Automatic annotation (TrEMBL):
Residues 1-46 are annotated as: Disordered. This is Uncharacterized protein. Residues 1-11 have a biased composition (Polar residues).
Amino acid sequence: MNSWNGSTGMSMFQLKTGRSPRLLPPLTPSDINALPDKSARTGIKPASVDSLTKDSLLASKVTQAFQANKSRGSPGKFKVGDLVMLTTVHRRRQYAQAGQNRIAK
């Protein structure tokens, strides 16, 4: 319930409710009339949590892309007229249906 996610920096409970869970119930009853008006706070807090989550996910996406691109080689530099080898392993499926283009296996 309260496990921390490395991408968002928050627990799932915090993302859903916008606050951390309470571990113990309050020992004294709270006076409901003494609480301040929370109507503005209830609208602003989820928006700030959502924007913080989006920023964290975008930052982790950029970091993951950077780390993944470290192991890739440089892209090949081809010119017009160069000969290249292409894999045709998935192209045989277009001839598998019955018809004029059918080939034997």
